[in-house]
From TrEMBL:
Keywords: Plasmid. InterPro entries: KAP_P-loop, NTPase_KAP_P-loop. The keyword Methyltransferase does not apply. PANTHER family: NTPASE KAP FAMILY P-LOOP DOMAIN-CONTAINING PROTEIN 1, NTPASE, KAP FAMILY P-LOOP DOMAIN-CONTAINING 1. It comes from the Bacteria. This is KAP NTPase domain-containing protein. Residues 7-269 form the KAP NTPase domain. The keyword Metal-binding does not apply.
Length: 666
């Protein structure tokens, strides 16, 4: 502020003195002379003369200060003092002086001559000396001596910037003050003639700075500052959440704010755009700078931190840690931290890692698609400052997914294809990346492209049994592609054609496993999907009837293959067909026995729920299940003949009706 005000005034020259540039007391004094010389007017004889004299005087002044440091210089120069000056001055110094030759007691004469030369220029000089409180004690005293020695030049003023408490501590630790705070204060008052204390940074100002800095970082790396929680519909604001979680912002300095924001910027730059969540990066960086002991422990607590918030109610006898357990853990790691600080840090951890037990009034993390730290695949990035070995760049994944949707296949030799082919953990990581990036890019793809992508990806989406893992990234990926094929179709006929094409690609069982995703948590399919699956629906009902009327299950599947696909209306249609075919409850129940099941183990192989969808319990008729076998007479597990299944169905139905067991498979 002062610099800006004076730089616009032609009468003033503002220069900075950097005490860090000097290695000892002598070079410190010489640096002072050079700084003042640089402020002299460049035009005109007087300015050039003053500049030359100051530059020439620097070596002599350095000698004086060296002598002063040894204790020989006080307020006047004696004979012994001059001898030392003469011994340390070099011939090059005398050459530089030219016609300006030292005489006995040279410093006073030079000082007077220099003062007169500076005064004749009419220059007004402000020398800014910043960060004095960051020097060591001996360095600080050296600067103070130099200021006191050279501070009487006419028109030359010094602006010393420092933290007063730190300065008094440094001076008090020296032999000069002898640990006496009053002497330290008195010494400082002798040097500083006009003290001016800056008012503390107000909350509004610090928040303004944080907002400006974080906003600039967000724009630099393409991060959203606002959004809507897709789970709750709540609007969120990154800056608001950040300010609410970091109480230090209301009681800090500009230097601390700039340092923190600069570190956030560096972390974002090291990973690159699209690889970190800005809010998480800012909070993790805050912990690293202000609570290092806690930050250092986070990687060792990884298994307790990563993951989503529990969806079920945790019973009291569960081994899961409580909030108080975590506070105790934090106390042990940072014993010097106050209770309010502990609470604030834990609130940050809960926000970053929703898996942790929440306290009352804890701020919750909005659901977002950004690479947040609580996800296992992103956690290491925030602590390694780079993509860990074995990770996949999200930017690279996005480019390859774009190629998938435009070309119908992943690039040959690409990262995703390589990781998928490797199998195991690499394949799972690649599928998670695929799922994530498809969510961003698939909404613009036409039906033909997404169906080609589904055909290309299908083999790698299946588990070792040839099925989709439910739930899992494979099912999510396939459902996203089918959903887009339906949404992007021009009408219902085109949507049905797209689903039928997918059915030909992945098979009947495969398409039903995909479609199940669309009715998760609901009784029926969304209207566009329901209209598009009519042909698949009819085919499934036909296969179910073939299973119910054949001694061997059809190759396309059996009733149990489609129980998650069938809706209430489909079960009702199946019941009408069953009645028209004259089938009995025993015929149907026999098809509810799973292969390789063992009904001796609490009927785990009998699926009563789909049977109950066809025949509500009040209509069960045990007379249709005559002569049930005893436990000892049940068929072996490997026997899946129709006779074995009929016997198992009789045993299961009588057991359920008589209340022998209530532990049924769902």
């Amino acid at each position: 502020m002062i610099r800006l005000a004076l730089e616009s005034d032609e009468k003033w020259a503002v220069v900075e003195f950097t005490p860090w540039a000097a290695t000892d007391l002598g070079s410190l004094t010489g640096e002072f002379y050079e700084v003042i010389a640089s402020a002299m007017p460049e035009k005109g004889k007087r300015g050039k003369t003053a500049r030359a004299m100051l530059m020439s005087a620097a070596p002599v002044a350095t000698s004086v200060m060296k002598t002063a440091a040894e204790g020989f210089f006080d307020q006047r120069f004696g004979t012994g003092t001059w001898q030392k000056i003469a011994d340390t001055a070099t011939s090059s110094t005398l050459d530089e002086l030219g016609n300006y030759k030292p005489t006995p007691n040279p410093f006073r004469q030079q000082f007077a001559a220099l003062s007169k030369a500076i005064e004749r220029t009419g220059a007004k000089v402000l020398v800014i000396v910043d960060d004095l409180d960051r020097l060591h004690t001996d360095e600080l005293l050296a600067v103070m001596k130099a200021v006191r020695l050279l501070g009487r030049f006419p028109g030359v003023h010094y602006l010393l910037s420092y933290d007063k408490r730190t300065m008094l501590d440094l001076i008090g630790a020296s032999d000069l003050a002898g640990s006496d705070p009053d002497r330290a204060r008195a010494y400082l008052e002798k040097i500083v003639q006009y003290p001016f204390e800056l008012p503390p940074l107000q909350s509004a100002h610090s928040r303004r700075e944080v907002t400006g800095q974080i906003t600039a970082i967000a724009h630099r790396y393409g991060c959203d500052l606002t959004g809507t929680d897709t789970r709750s519909g709540r609007n969120w604001d990154l800056i608001d959440d950040l300010l609410a979680l970091l109480p230090f912002i209301d009681n800090t300095t500009l230097r601390a704010i700039y340092r923190w924001c600069a570190q956030v910027d560096v972390l974002m730059a090291l990973l690159g755009p699209g690889h970190l969540d800005l809010l998480d990066a800012a909070l993790i960086t805050y912990l690293r700078l202000h609570h290092e002991q806690i930050y250092d422990r986070l990687p060792t607590w990884r298994s307790k931190l990563v993951g989503d918030a529990p969806r079920a109610i945790v019973l009291s006898d569960s081994p899961r840690d409580t909030a108080e357990d975590w506070l105790t853990r934090l106390r042990n790691e940072a014993p010097g931290m106050s209770e309010p600080e502990l609470t604030d840090v834990y609130k940050i951890l809960v926000y970053l890692f929703p898996k942790l037990p929440h306290q009352l009034y804890s701020r919750t993390r909005p659901l977002s698609t950004t690479p947040q730290v609580h996800h296992d695949e992103f956690f290491d990035r925030y602590f390694m400052f780079t993509l860990p070995v074995g990770d996949i760049s999200d930017v690279t994944a996005a480019k390859e997914v774009s190629s998938l949707l435009s070309d119908g296949s992943l690039p040959e030799g690409g990262v995703l294809r390589t990781f998928i082919a490797a199998g195991g953990g690499d394949q799972r990581l690649a599928l998670r990346k695929l799922r994530r990036e498809l969510g961003h890019a698939v909404t613009d793809a036409p039906p033909g492209c997404v169906l080609a992508a589904l055909e290309h990806l299908w083999p790698c989406l299946l588990n070792e049994h040839g099925d989709l893992s439910l739930p899992g990234p494979g099912q999510d990926i396939a459902a996203m592609l089918i959903g887009q094929a339906v949404d992007a179709s021009s009408d219902t006929d085109d949507a049905r054609a797209a689903v039928n094409q997918a059915r030909q690609c992945v098979g009947l069982r495969g398409i039903t496993q995909i479609l199940v995703e669309f009715r998760r948590g609901r009784d029926d399919y969304p209207a566009p999907i329901a209209a598009a699956v009519t042909d698949v629906r009819d085919e499934v009902l036909g296969v179910c009837m073939a299973d119910l009327t054949s001694p061997q299950p059809p190759q396309e599947g059996q009733v149990l293959s489609f129980i998650y696909f069938l809706t209430t209306d489909m079960y009702a249609e199946l019941r009408r067909r069953i009645d028209s075919a004259g089938l009995t409850q025993l015929d149907v129940a026999a098809r509810m026995v799973a292969k390789d099941s063992n009904l001796r183990e609490e009927l785990q192989g009998f699926y009563h729920e789909p049977f109950e969808e066809i025949y509500p319990r009040e209509y069960w008729d045990l007379t249709q299940f005559p002569d049930p076998p005893s436990v000892d007479d049940l068929p072996e597990r490997e026997d899946y003949s129709i006779d074995a299944r009929l016997a198992q169905a009789k045993f299961a139905m009588h057991s359920i009706m008589l209340g022998i067991t209530s532990n049924q498979p769902d």
